[in-house]
Amino acid sequence: MDVGAASTLSSTTANALQGLKKADNELNEASQNIAGGSQDPKDIVSLSQAATSFKANAAVIKTQDEVTQSLLNIKA
Q1: pLDDT (0 to 100) of residue 75
Q2: Which of 4, 11, 33, 58 has a C-alpha 20 to 30 A away from that of 47?
Q3: Rounded to two decimals, what is the model's pTM?
């Protein structure tokens, strides 16, 4: 694997981890608002969007892991 590919995979993982952290923060904020009695529809929408974002970022990390494994298998 060349340095450029490793760098791209590393930045992909870093971006996905950042997305996971952001989604986690949004999930916590929306759930606290809802638990506190908020009936604002924005909180429900935010909760749903954050959950979808979390799943998408987790899928990116899983796919990146699979690509890395494939590259290592090719190299071996």
Answers
A1: 79
A2: 11
A3: 0.76
